[in-house]
């Protein structure tokens, strides 16, 4: 059995086992999810909340932006509080004050330490005891707790309305006035907030940890990291070191093996590829990429500025037209959409280039798919705006408005539309690749991996269709991370690896057998941790300790291949100067080098910073999370998308002279701007929040009291230089691409410039 076949067997076996375990864990999550009772009653039998009210409250929360305005269980935006932690702290204080006033004749804060300690122990007993009765599907609470709930609910009813008493807090949270105009809807939403806090402080039956594994940190109720977070954090570091050692051993053993001499081509082989009509049609995809990218940057700057001025943007009352929750929604959605569009366009361009086959009506299919993409973007964004402005109605919100789940916010109708579009893309790529898939050539393995990754890209977005409007929150989080982690961070990575391997082999720089083994091995290493590493997002989402253990172990393995990313970067650097004509591809290769750097820093260092359970217990939802998110999402997948686009443009317009100075400006502005953004704002602000969360509790690190300090304002303003530099890079890239059509310069007078 040859080595290539062995690697295929290993890869397919690994994927089969990994997904079997992931599906079994999903079944466990569905069983272990916190119960949503038919009703919540007092000891006197009075009904406090009903299931219908809590479900309707979640619908209201989703329609106003959901995770884009504050967060639930740590997942979501960073300016407004985490509503679960905020409610938990407010309810605890309300109950302590109620007891202190009634039983000890003074406010809780005025009591001596002994009395405070006594009341706090009483509070922990009250809040942590599980009173859910499965037989009656009911949660029973004390009469005192019902009074405390009523007091806290009034605060939220006022906050999400237009009460002058909470106007300053709305401004601090970047909330528009009358975020939820309907008073009945506001009241229903408080029941949902209460339930998320109840799950975060109520111990599972027969356990000493809550449904969210004691998250968030809250000293008043005794929420502190359970022993499992310490144990599995230690094991995750051990697994990381062991994985790096094994990969180092493998590299040492295989690196010295002699390979056959490889003659480099005297001229650029890609110039000989005939550009077909469907390949030319992908140009419009790359124009859309730039438009979406520029829009995302503009909305990102606007979203960041809301953190300073609350409801204003440079003095203008923008919140009444484009509130924070909608600008953040569009900013996060566009990040995925423009990167995905870049890779979809690359797939449509590369498939005929690999096979040399242009199927009938292929260009028409590419054009129809492009039109569908525009309809999806415009339609879904319009629905989200109508939802956030509370003009759509709860009955239509799930299908056409704002689902409220970060990165998968678009309504279900638009999700289905996009999924069907991806199926069309898969058909177009597959039919163009079919002749190459049937050939028994050296490159068939890379072609097969390219096609399988395209299949996975098409199918795995469908995970976002597996939940319904009232599916348990824990199960929605499970499927949501299939989309965000497996679809974006997983199979797009494999797709890009296969594309890059094809490009370098087609350029004649790497022998095809060598590239095949390298790509298969890299995919195995990445997917070994990547599939089950999805679970590290679910430590505190109403899941069991098994999820925490598996997530900690395998997410550590995700970092293993990144420890040797320098070897990949060095190989790419060598290839960039292997022959004189490779100067034509200098900047695409430079973007691939940037991918290697940010893979190590953003995905590796900043990713592992927050991945171990003990770290994430305190860091989830703090600014150390977007530190990893920004540097990994753009630094890796964004840079990769730009590099692939440039490769396609070089092949599409082979005879044009490139403006190297503009590309150089774009490249360095992107990297310097991203570094400034990370080092001047996200890292120091996240570190300050981490200290606050450890010292005083998670609620404080996300509170207006903490976030409105002068030092926080300064750190947010320090993001401006990085944003300006980064934006200059985007403008330079847009100008470079536009100039290829508007001001083309040919190095061959007989060249036919594509229009």
Keywords:
755 residues, mainly alpha, 4-stranded mixed sheet, two-stranded antiparallel ribbon, 27 helices, globular, disordered C terminus, cytochrome-c oxidase activity, Cyt_C_Oxase_1
Summarize it:
This is Nitric oxide reductase subunit B cytochrome c-like domain-containing protein. This protein has 755 residues and is mainly α. It has helices at 3-32, 51-63, 83-104, 113-128, 143-159, 167-172, 183-201, 227-255, 277-281, 283-309, 324-355, 362-388, 394-400, 412-438, 444-460, 473-506, 512-530, 545-559, 565-576, 586-610, 613-619, 624-652, 660-696, 698-701, 704-707, 710-717, 719-742; strands spanning 39-42, 47-50, 71-72, 75-76, 132-133, 138-141.
Describe the protein's architecture and organization.
- This protein has 755 residues and is mainly α.
- It has a domain at 33-224.
- Helix content is 68%, strand content 2%.
- The protein is built from 27 helices and six strands.
- The strands form two sheets. A four-stranded mixed β-sheet has the order 2-1-6-5. The chain has a two-stranded antiparallel sheet with strand order 3-4.
- Helix 8 runs parallel beside helix 18 and helix 11 runs parallel beside helix 22 (624-652).
- The longest helix is centred in the last third of the chain and has 37 residues, at 660-696.
- The radius of gyration is 27 Å and the shape is globular.
- The two termini are 49 Å apart.
- Mean pLDDT is 90; it is low at 749-755.
- This is Nitric oxide reductase subunit B cytochrome c-like domain-containing protein.
- The chain crosses the membrane at residues 7-26, 230-249, 285-306, 330-351, 363-387, 413-434, 446-467, 479-505, 517-539, 545-567, 587-610, 630-649, 661-683, 724-742.
- Residues 37-216 form the Nitric oxide reductase subunit B cytochrome c-like domain.
- One of its GO terms (molecular function) is cytochrome-c oxidase activity.
- Keywords: Membrane, Transmembrane, Transmembrane helix.
């Amino acid at each position: 059995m040859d080595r290539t076949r062995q690697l295929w067997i290993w890869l397919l076996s690994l994927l089969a086992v990994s997904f079997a375990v992931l599906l079994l864990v999903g079944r466990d999550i569905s069983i272990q999810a916190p119960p949503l009772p038919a009703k919540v009653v007092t000891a006197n039998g009075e009904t406090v909340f009903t299931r219908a009210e809590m479900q309707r409250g979640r619908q209201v929360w989703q329609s106003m932006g959901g995770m884009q305005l504050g967060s639930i269980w740590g997942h979501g935006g960073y300016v407004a509080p985490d509503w679960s932690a905020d409610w938990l702290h407010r309810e605890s204080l309300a109950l302590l004050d109620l007891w202190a006033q009634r039983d000890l004749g003074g406010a809780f804060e005025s009591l001596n330490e002994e009395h405070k300690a006594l009341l706090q122990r009483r509070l922990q007993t009250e809040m942590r005891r599980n009173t859910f009765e499965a037989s009656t599907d009911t949660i029973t609470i004390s009469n005192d707790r019902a009074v405390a709930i009523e007091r806290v609910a009034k605060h939220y009813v006022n906050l999400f309305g237009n009460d002058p008493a909470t106007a300053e807090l709305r401004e601090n949270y970047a909330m528009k006035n009358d975020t939820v105009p309907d008073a009945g809807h506001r009241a229903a939403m408080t029941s949902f907030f209460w339930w998320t806090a109840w799950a975060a402080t109520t111990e599972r039956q027969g356990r000493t940890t809550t449904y969210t594994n004691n998250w968030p940190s809250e000293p008043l109720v005794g929420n502190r990291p359970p022993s499992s977070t310490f144990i599995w954090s230690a094991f995750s570091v051990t697994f990381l070191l062991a994985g790096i050692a094994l990969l180092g051993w493998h590299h040492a053993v295989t690196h010295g093996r002699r390979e056959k001499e490889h003659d480099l081509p005297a001229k650029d082989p890609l110039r000989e590829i005939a550009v077909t009509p469907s390949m030319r049609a992908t140009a419009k995809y790359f124009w859309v990429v730039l438009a979406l990218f520029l829009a995302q940057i503009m909305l990102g700057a606007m979203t960041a500025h809301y953190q300073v001025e609350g409801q204003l943007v440079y003095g203008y009352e923008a919140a009444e037209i484009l509130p924070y929750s909608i600008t953040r929604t569009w900013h996060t959605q566009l990040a995925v959409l423009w990167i995905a569009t870049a890779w979809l366009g690359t797939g449509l361009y590369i498939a005929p280039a690999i096979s040399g086959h242009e199927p009938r009506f292929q260009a028409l299919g590419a054009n129809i798919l492009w039109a569908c993409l525009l309809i999806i973007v415009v339609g879904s964004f319009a629905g989200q705006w109508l939802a956030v402005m509370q003009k759509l109605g709860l009955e239509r919100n799930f299908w056409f408005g704002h689902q409220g789940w970060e990165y998968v916010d678009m309504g279900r109708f638009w999700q289905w539309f996009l999924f069907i579009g991806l199926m069309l893309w898969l058909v177009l790529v597959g039919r163009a690749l079919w002749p190459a898939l049937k050939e028994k050539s050296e490159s068939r393995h890379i072609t097969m991996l390219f096609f399988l990754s395209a299949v996975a890209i098409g199918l795995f977005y469908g995970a976002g269709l597996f939940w319904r409007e009232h599916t348990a929150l824990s199960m929605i989080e499970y499927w949501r991370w299939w989309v965000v982690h497996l679809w974006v961070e997983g199979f797009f990575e494999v797709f890009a690896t296969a594309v890059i391997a094809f490009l370098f082999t087609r350029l004649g720089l790497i022998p095809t057998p060598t590239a095949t083994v390298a790509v298969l091995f890299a995919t195995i290493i990445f997917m070994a941790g990547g599939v089950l590493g999805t679970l590290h997002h679910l430590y505190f989402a109403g899941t069991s300790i098994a999820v925490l253990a598996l997530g900690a172990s395998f997410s550590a393995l995700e970092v293993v291949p990144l420890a040797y990313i320098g070897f990949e970067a060095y190989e790419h650097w060598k290839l960039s100067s292997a022959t004189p004509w490779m100067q034509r591809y200098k900047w695409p290769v430079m973007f691939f080098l940037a991918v290697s750097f940010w893979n190590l820093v953003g995905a590796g260092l900043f990713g592992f910073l927050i991945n171990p359970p003990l770290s994430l217990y305190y860091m989830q939802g703090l600014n150390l999370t977007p530190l990893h998110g920004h540097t990994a999402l753009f630094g890796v997948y964004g840079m990769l998308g730009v590099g692939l686009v440039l490769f396609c443009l070089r092949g599409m317009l082979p005879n044009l002279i490139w403006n190297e100075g503009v590309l150089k400006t774009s490249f360095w502005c992107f990297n310097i701007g991203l570094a400034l953004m990370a080092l001047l704002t996200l890292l120091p602000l996240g570190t300050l929040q981490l200290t606050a969360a450890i010292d005083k509790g998670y609620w404080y690190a996300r509170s207006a009291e903490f976030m409105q300090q002068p030092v926080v304002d300064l750190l947010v303003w320090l993001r401006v230089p990085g944003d300006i530099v980064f934006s200059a890079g985007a403008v330079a890239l847009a100008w470079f691409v536009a100039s290829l059509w508007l001001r083309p310069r040919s190095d061959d007078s007989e060249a036919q410039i594509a229009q």
